[in-house]
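User: You have something folded?
Assistant:
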Amino acid sequence: MSMTDKQKEKAARIPAIGVAGEQPSHMYNKTIIADTVESGNLQTTEEVSMFERMGGQYEERDGIFYPLISMEEEHVDVGKYGLFWMEYMKSEYPQRYVSLKRCCRLREKAAEVNEEAYRILDEITDKYLKGKVEHSDSTMEVWKLREQARMMAEEIIFAEIVNQFH
């Protein structure tokens, strides 16, 4: 028993039906075209969905295609001051925190804050130690001066960079 051309066209327009929980037709990747029903001679043609044209991919589980949708942030090292800034934003500006997180820009912004903080830390400690370290012969004295410079610089960093809205 052979299918007529009209039956073949109709079969070509009907999407394949999934197993256990049918999906809408626009979710299917393949359409089945049958030459003959009894001979089992089936061939498939690929149909690309809009999601696939935009670069999306599907995962097949139990005969059903599920779109792979995930918003994974790239691992960005946010550092010490970036983590402090993230905590500050989470407690003081939760809307901005959620917005940055939703747009996958939170860690990127925190890394920028961390870089700026370390740049200023180096700048301030260098200015503070400029004339004081050269006159000191003691290692302990130099260490104390460096610690003083770092603590002073961190106060400024927390006030002007970390605990600010960016």
Summary: The radius of gyration is 31 Å. Strands lie at 30-36, 41-46, 58-61, 64-67. DSSP finds six helices and four strands in the chain.
